[in-house]
UniProtKB/TrEMBL annotation:
Residues 189-347 form the Glycosyl transferase family domain. It comes from Lichenibacterium minor. Keywords: Transferase. This is Glycosyltransferase. InterPro entries: Glyco_trans_1 (IPR001296). The keyword Transferase applies. Pfam families: Glycos_transf_1. GO terms for molecular function: glycosyltransferase activity. The lineage of its organism: Bacteria, Pseudomonadati, Pseudomonadota, Alphaproteobacteria, Hyphomicrobiales.
């Protein structure tokens, strides 16, 4: 029996978690008779999503490189790294294919380098500074076949030419036709921000932008900020306090994380992704376009690869609350000027992020490892996935 191991560093159902579930679902559909073992660091909402895929979920300690854990990892964490690598090596040894989702799972990258030829590494991160140097070195050591989720991610890691690597955009499942009527100015503009509450995502930029809106424009906007912090309640409290301090309590609703964001996308007219730091791609923006909702994204990381400015959405400078406010004010004042964006956004999703070509490309990479054959060409984004 073919044994496939899929390793993930998370346990919730945010973007990277849903991307992992999508890949496991693809693997199961391509290999219905295989045994698929999923390794997670702890149980969480993702387990329910995986349970329908006929996989065995195992919770094991993983050596995950996270910024907030660096002091601990550099001290007591080093003592348990050898055991973690040995455990990962044992799994790799008894697997025909190991799929590792994200490059921060250090123990599996180190073990992969000891047993090359069995691992596919899917990189979804754009790290910076010392973290980038460390992760780039780990990726090279792993000698894994590498999938990068955007050209921006590929540029960041700048891996040596000639290795088995491909840029393949994340596939986003089709939610079906858009449900809400197009915005015509007869009601408040519905603006959605969806994602983890963190320093990266830019919830504070959105709050500042709303504060800057003229009073008559602000009165014609309704905002939902949906998401929770990662084990950081203080950050959530700070966000709530900033909304009150800006006098936006009647305009902005804070809602907790949900494993099914579809109702929020259906509610929205526009989706904002005002990231301060590079997003490797930007799943929320793609999901918005799948729902026929044009996104406003920051001009950073992989986000500009998703949106055609002035056609399927808007691109604004990162961290620029004034630019974001100006875009929102224009959307409120001139709904007819961007009405075609909704259809264009949906068509771009269908052409670039929703096609079978993406599935085919991923299965080709995984199949090359299973077959122990020649790896696919280095920069083979499927034609349907080109921006």
């Amino acid at each position: 029996m073919t044994v496939i191991t899929c390793v993930h560093q998370g346990f919730e159902l945010y973007g990277s978690d849903r991307a992992f579930v999508d890949t496991v679902r693809l693997v199961r559909s391509a290999h219905p008779g295989a045994r698929i073992d999923v390794v997670l660091p702890r149980r969480g909402p993702i387990v329910a999503a995986l349970s329908a895929l006929d996989v065995d979920v195992t919770v094991e300690p993983l050596w995950i490189l996270r910024r907030r854990d660096l002091p601990k990892l550099a001290t007591v964490g080093m003592a348990r790294l050898p055991a973690a690598v040995a455990r990962a090596a044992a799994r790799i040894r008894r697997s025909d294919l190991v799929y590792v989702n994200t490059c921060v799972v250090v123990d599996y990258l180190l073990a992969s380098g000891l047993m090359p030829g069995r691992t596919v590494l899917h990189i979804h991160e754009i790290p910076e500074g010392p973290a980038l140097a460390a992760l780039r070195a780990l990726v090279r050591w792993s000698r894994a076949s590498v999938v990068l989720n955007s050209r921006a991610t590929a540029r960041t890691f700048a891996l040596p030419a000639g290795g088995p690597r491909r840029v393949i955009y994340n596939r986003i499942s089709d939610p079906g036709p858009a449900a809400a009527a197009p915005y015509d100015g007869s009601r408040p503009l519905r603006v959605l921000m969806l994602g983890r509450v963190s320093r990266i995502k830019g919830q504070d930029v959105l709050v500042d932008a709303l504060r800057r809106l003229p009073g008559d424009i602000r009165a014609r906007v309704e905002v939902r900020i949906v998401g929770s912090a990662f084990e950081d309640e203080a950050r959530e409290r700070a966000l709530a306090a900033s909304i009150v301090a800006a006098g936006l309590s009647d305009r902005v609703v804070l809602l907790p994380f949900t494993s099914d964001p579809a109702p929020h996308f259906r509610w929205a007219d526009i989706v904002t992704v005002p990231s301060r730091l590079p997003e490797s791609l930007g799943r929320v923006a793609i999901e918005a376009m799948a729902h026929g909702k044009p996104p406003i994204v920051s001009d950073i990381g992989g986000l500009p690869e998703i949106v055609e400015h002035g056609r399927s959405g808007w691109i604004v400078p990162p961290g620029d609350a004034a630019a974001l406010a100006g875009t929102l004010a224009s959307a409120v004042a001139d709904p007819g000027g961007w009405r075609p964006y909704a259809e264009a956004a949906r068509k771009r999703y269908e052409a670039v992020f929703g096609g079978a070509a993406i599935d085919h490309a991923m299965l080709e990479v995984l199949g090359a490892v299973l077959d122990r054959g020649a790896a696919p060409s280095a920069d083979a984004v499927p034609s349907a996935a080109h921006p």
